[in-house]
Design a protein that fits this description.
alpha+beta; five-stranded antiparallel sheet; 3 helices; globular
């Protein structure tokens, strides 16, 4: 496998795009050698669903699209970022028992940590942000 692989897709900020983002990421991961029926693939699909849902729901119509960037470095580290153009960054909110929403970032952070990874947020030059996860790559190296 190459030292560095990348893949990107830009989708409309529409609820239907959440499943499209999930399918896109799953397809790329399979191309890069990750078994589609494993626990790691399931975790990554859930994380991408949460990130894409946040990009659609919390931009309040101010981000007409969102972009999913994937990067695999040296068969060791997988980075997935979801970028939108809304200037507000995610906030860590206390998740009260009665809340119907507001737990997405908590879930993402916990899932990433459980896989030995981390979550970060970086600004874009246009004034938006990218929410990144970085995870150790667990697929066997293909020769």
């Amino acid at each position: 496998m190459a030292d560095h692989q990348e893949s990107t897709v830009t989708l409309p900020s529409d609820p239907a795009s959440v499943s499209a983002a999930r399918r896109y990421v799953a397809g790329v991961l399979t191309e890069w050698g990750l078994a589609s029926d494993g626990e790691t693939a399931d975790t990554i699909r859930l994380i991408v669903s949460e990130l894409a849902t946040n990009a659609v729901q919390h931009t309040f119509g101010q981000s007409p699209t969102f972009t999913v960037d994937m990067r695999l470095e040296c068969d060791e580290q997988l980075h997935i970022g979801v970028t939108d153009s809304h200037p507000r960054w995610p906030k860590r909110l206390p998740a009260a028992v009665q809340q119907d929403n507001g737990r997405g970032m908590v879930i993402i952070r916990w899932l990433a940590a459980e896989c030995g990874g981390r979550l970060s947020v970086t600004p874009t030059p246009e004034g938006g942000k990218t929410v990144w996860i970085a995870l150790p790559w667990t697929a066997p190296v293909q020769s």
